Amino acid sequence: MKFIQFLFIGIFFGIVMTKSEVISWFRIQEMFRFQSFHMYGVIGSAWLMGVFFVQLIKRKNIKTHNGSNIAFKNKDFSVSRYLFGGTIFGLGWALTGACPGPLYTLVGNGFTVFIVVILSALLGTYVYGLLKNKLPH
Amino acid sequence: MYVLQLYKMNNMIDFLSQPWPWYISGPLIALVMFMLLRFGGKFGVSATLRSICSMAGAGKHCDFFDFNWKSQRWNLIFALGAVVGGFIASTALKSTEPLALNPNTIEDLSQLGIYFTGEMAPMEIFSWNSLLTIKGFVVLIVGGFLVGFGTRWAGGCTSGHAISGLSDFQLPSLIAVIGFFIGGLVMTFLIFPILF
């Protein structure tokens, strides 16, 4: 099994997301209503620790397990793409209370109706692919 | 000795079954990103949606999906793991306490007719029956569509932009995260009062 390590990292990720309640629709509402620090704490501390890991990789020139370089590509600059795309995702995030990671983990939590949400997200991704050249980027 | 070990293990499971505080969970999510990078992947869950479209054959008539999705198999396996992790956390590590939601949120939502019972999500919306209602359709079908469409247009979601991108000080990711909040606030404060 070639990708077994990714299965385990995914399992770990699913457990962390469930136990920290970031998959909760209610927690997302609490976040958008600025009524709790919880979500900001999770995302903020993930970001701080993330900065540390990225700097560690860059400064210590840490390689992947099989010795290749870990490359960080600069994202192409644009405002419209990130602002419009981001806003549309934000509308969906507040509605479903889930970003793509939690979509998967909620199914595991027994909210099987999220299979329909995933199918709908696949349709959204597909329609984006069809309209891509007509949208500002 | 064995009984003692069993007792300790039970204690451990009880310990892990409590809700995890943000200052533990946030750094562990960053650790997920680090582990993915170390194994030659990267942290960006919404990319799996594009890969699944490609896997289903969308590349035959749309260039955007015409790429070697097999190079992304690691991410699909990661997403599968996230399902399994959700199952383990909600069974073996199930919390006995209700979610500690802010009373103000409970009050605000009850005014919209959404009642908090201690679950992760309002069951009357996130059930199969609700698919046939207008509210359920909007939340589940329209909401899912917006997540898929928006993340791909923005080139990432919370993991790809808010964690991976911001950790590498990418300005585009900051713009995307500002967008996430504009959308979320518009939905919560302007559209929810009409929808619910």
Give short descriptive properties of this protein.
A: 137 residues; mainly alpha; B: 196 residues; globular
Uncertain stretches of 5 or more adjacent residues of chain B: none
Q: Report the strand count of chain B.
A: 0
Q: Sketch the topology of chain A as an H/E string, one letter per element.
A: HHHHHH
Order of helices and strands of chain B: HHHHHHHH
Beta-strand portion of chain B reads: under 5%
Shape of chain B: globular
Termini separation of chain A (Å)?
A: 39 Å
Biggest sheet architecture of chain B: none
Describe the structure.
The complex is a heterodimer of chains A (137) and B (196). Helix content of chain A is 66%, strand content 0%. Chain A contains six helices and no strands. In chain A, helix 1 (4-19) packs across helix 5 (100-108) and helix 5 (100-108) runs antiparallel to helix 6 (114-131). Chain A is globular. Chain B is 64% helix and 0% strand. Chain B has helices spanning 2-17, 22-38, 47-55, 73-91, 103-111, 134-154, 158-167, 171-195. In chain B, helix 3 packs across helix 4 and helix 7 runs antiparallel to helix 8 (171-195). The model of chain B has no long low-confidence stretch (mean pLDDT 95). Classes of the chains: A mainly alpha (137), B mainly alpha (196). At the A-B interface, helix 1, helix 2, helix 3, helix 4 and helix 5 of A face helix 2, helix 3, helix 4, helix 5 and helix 6 of B.
In short:
Chain A has 137 residues and is an all-alpha fold. Helix content of chain A is 66%, strand content 0%.
Per-chain topology:
The complex is a heterodimer of chains A (137) and B (196).
Chain A: H1 4-19, H2 25-32, H3 38-59, H4 80-96, H5 100-108, H6 114-131
Helix pairs in contact in A: 1-5, 2-4, 5-6
Chain B: H1 2-17, H2 22-38, H3 47-55, H4 73-91, H5 103-111, H6 134-154, H7 158-167, H8 171-195
Helix pairs in contact in B: 3-4, 7-8
